[in-house]
Design brief:
722 residues; alpha/beta; Spore Coat Polysaccharide Biosynthesis Protein SpsA, Chain A; 2 domains; eight-stranded mixed beta sheet; three-stranded mixed beta sheet; 23 helices
């Protein structure tokens, strides 16, 4: 069939809402300019500090709003047709695929969760001989290795079961735990095998030791013997263990199985390990020695495959001869399962994956989201013009278990290997930030690479979102610190915009990297108007003042746009409300703490550092989450800005209401009363956790007492100021 007659592999359309977005952005920008002009005039005519704070807060809000509109100028929708692949390439000519899965702590990221992720991708509808799965265990745990020894045995039955019955949900836990499970003749038998594996792995974790009865092969005992008394997560030699090798290990039906390799890179306290970026670079080097597939998929430990045809969707772009040769990677969205009905923490991150990603797709392409990215291997080695196209098949002909291959793999997994090399600077995932995913993909775009966003109807991957407030806020704080590190690196938003030849791309980059500055306006508006109200001071226009209407227009415009986007995406109103409340909570706690932590780190003061988000779910905590009850539980200082603001806003609202009743007028303080009341409604879960909850998820008394003291101190200081 001639090339011009071949059916398309994919289509691309500009979303209809683009025109409306542009018109709204123009009108709303005029209102913002009017507000800033009003603040500037007040600043010239006033002797107090209040206009300065209001101008600062609204200038930052204006900056973040303007940068957010860049995502809405060219929102793009794509569709792929995997049934047309046969017109372009034979299945035997598909490129090799190396899958990278990272885990760091067997107690916060249970090995069974990582095993489920690995099994789901090992069962892809993809040529077995071209598929390899590499697991990076940055916790250096023998329990994780044991779990994957068990997984390798179970895979011999799981893979043919999925292949024979055309199972769609190929994550065992999801398949067997489905509310409407598929039933096949072998289902009960395979489920029994899975449960037996799960019990053994969880027993090992619980006991802290591996029973000799669980070791069935000589090679397994030898591999586990490397964990001696001096072997610790922070100090140990490299471990590279080939658990399955195509051509040598067969499943229960005699078919080959994909390569499965466990890797724990060398660690010692004298060498920096560069967090997840360092682990991924070790996987890049080890996989290059063993299989050297030209396509790489990166996955988080909990982000299992939900669609066995996902690699074929990526190939619709990677193998299309009409695509830009500078296409570097295809990004799939992160979708989360187990989120409660109303998503009380805003965990689905709707803005990122339904507004920002499609918007960037119409520009230079989306950033990498840390998981679910299909990369051409050569993008990690430089600019498009500097890296030749790699061979589509396997380039390594010898056994990946050979002595030479394993020796070289251990060598490149050593902590000294990167010394005096370009790794982390010009090659691989880049170092210097906690958000290596966004930083690396930004630098790729600066080098000339492009990316595509693929968002199929059936989610390609499903992961876990935090189900308690502490983990949720800490995760956001860690991201905000990392984003500031990127913002003030040598690739600033301005540099990015110039290098990517797109002002709008630069604005998108700025919006992400300056996330933490949201904390400034949120803090100002959570405290300043309310403290003024407590001191009978009016700082906003009266109802009769024409400038009052401007505040109304700005508030309704911003919230109205957000609400309409939620409705159009099929979400209920309650989810929208919880999402905006979660954003306020982030602003007061996560972003504020993130900004402070970055500043402390910048001046050389020790900070909290990297912390893996726990994937362990307690039963009672899970029940409360499913009921929509906020989980506080721990006496963490990250709650203090939120709880202090809740107290001040409640007292200010009640005080203002009492004064308004006495004076029978809200003319002077309506906007301040509205802000306080709006905060009180949003803080209702905080008041419940403070006052009348008795479960383990309530707010600790220590935090409540400290918050009351801080609120009183702020009021005393404001009394002198006003």
């Amino acid at each position: 069939m001639a090339g011009s007659q071949r059916p398309p592999l994919h289509t691309q359309l500009l979303m209809p809402r683009a025109g409306i977005n542009r018109a709204f952005a123009l009108l709303y920008s005029c209102a913002i300019l009017a507000l800033l002009y009003h603040h500037f005039i007040d600043l010239l005519q006033s002797t107090s500090m209040v206009p300065i704070f209001l101008l600062l807060a609204d200038s930052i809000l204006a900056f973040m709003w303007v940068t957010a509109q860049a995502f809405r100028m060219y929102p793009t929708h794509r569709q792929v047709f995997i049934e047309h692949l046969e017109h372009y390439v034979k299945e035997s000519d598909y490129p090799g695929l190396d899958v990278f899965i990272c885990t760091a702590d067997p107690y916060k990221e249970p090995p069974m969760g990582v095993v489920n992720t690995a099994l789901s991708v090992m069962a892809y509808d993809y040529p077995i001989e071209k598929l390899s799965v590499y697991v990076s265990d940055d916790g250096g745990s023998k329990f994780t290795l044991f779990a994957f020894m068990e997984a390798a045995r179970f895979a011999a039955h799981w893979l043919p079961y999925c292949r024979k019955n055309k199972v769609v949900e190929r994550c065992p836990k999801a398949h067997f735990g489905s509310s409407n499970p598929s039933r096949f003749p072998e289902t009960d038998q395979i489920k029994t095998m899975y449960e037996s594996m799960r019990v053994r792995v969880e027993n090992v974790i619980k006991r802290g030791s591996i029973s000799h009865d669980y070791i069935t092969k000589q090679g397994e005992s030898e591999a586990l013997s490397r964990w001696t008394d001096g072997f610790t997560p922070q100090n140990h030699p490299p471990v590279v263990q080939v658990l399955l090798e195509y051509g040598k290990d067969n499943d229960a039906t005699g078919h080959g199985m994909p390569n499965l390799v466990y890797i724990s890179r060398e660690k010692n306290t004298d060498s920096p390990h560069n967090f997840k970026a360092g682990a991924l670079n070790v996987l890049l080097r080890v996989s290059a020695i063993m299989t050297n597939a030209p396509v790489i998929l990166t996955l988080d430990s909990d982000m299992y495959s939900n669609d066995p045809q996902t690699p074929l969707r990526a190939l619709c772009y990677l193998l299309d001869p009409s695509m830009d040769p500078k296409l570097g990677y295809i990004q799939f969205p992160q979708v989360f399962h187990g989120i409660n009905k109303n998503d009380i923490y805003g965990g689905e991150m709707r803005h990122s994956f339904e507004v920002h990603m499609p918007g960037m797709d119409g520009l230079a392409g989306p950033f990498h989201a840390g998981s679910g990215g299909f990369f051409r291997r050569r993008v990690f080695y430089g600019c498009p013009s500097e890296t030749p196209e790699m061979n589509q098949g396997r380039q390594v002909s010898h056994s990946i278990k050979s002595r030479e291959v394993l020796a070289m793999a251990h060598h490149v997994a050593g902590c000294k290997y990167e010394n005096q090399t370009k790794w982390g600077r010009k090659m691989g995932f880049r170092y210097g930030t906690l958000v290596e995913d966004l930083y690396t993909s930004c630098l790729m775009q600066c080098e000339g690479w492009k990316s595509i966003y693929c968002n199929p109807k059936r989610p390609a991957f499903l992961g876990e979102s935090p189900i308690n407030l502490h983990d949720f806020l800490n995760q956001t704080m860690r991201w905000s610190v990392g984003l500031l590190e990127v913002a003030f690196s040598r690739y600033s938003p301005i540099t990015f915009g110039v290098r990517s030849i797109s002002l709008l791309s630069g604005l998108c980059f700025a919006h992400y990297t300056f996330w933490a500055i949201w904390g400034i306006p949120f803090t100002i508006y959570a405290f300043l108007p309310q403290l003024a109200l407590l001191n009978s001071a009016s700082i906003f226009p009266k109802i009769s003042d024409p400038w009052f209407l401007l505040y109304v227009v700005l508030f309704l415009g911003a919230y109205g746009q957000d609400y309409l986007e939620f409705l159009l995406s099929g979400r209920p109103t309650q989810r929208w409300w919880n999402h905006q409340r979660a954003w306020i909570m982030r602003g007061l706690s996560s972003f504020t703490f993130g900004l402070v932590e970055y500043l402390l780190k910048y001046v050389g003061i020790s900070t909290f550092g990297f912390n893996v988000t726990s994937k362990v779910v307690e039963e009672e905590q899970s029940k409360r989450y499913q009921k929509g009850i906020f989980e506080f539980g721990v006496p963490s200082p990250i709650f203090l800005p939120l709880t202090t603001a809740a107290i001040i806003n409640l007292v200010a609202f009640l005080s203002g209401f009492a004064k308004a009743c006495r004076q029978r007028s809200l003319e002077d303080v309506f906007l301040q009363m509205f802000l306080a009341g709006f905060a009180v409604v949003n803080c209702w879960p905080v008041y419940e956790a403070m006052a009348w909850r008795r479960d383990q998820g309530k707010l600790p008394l220590k935090i409540t007492v400290i918050s009351v003291v801080l609120a009183w101190a702020l009021y005393s200081a404001s009394s002198m100021a006003f």
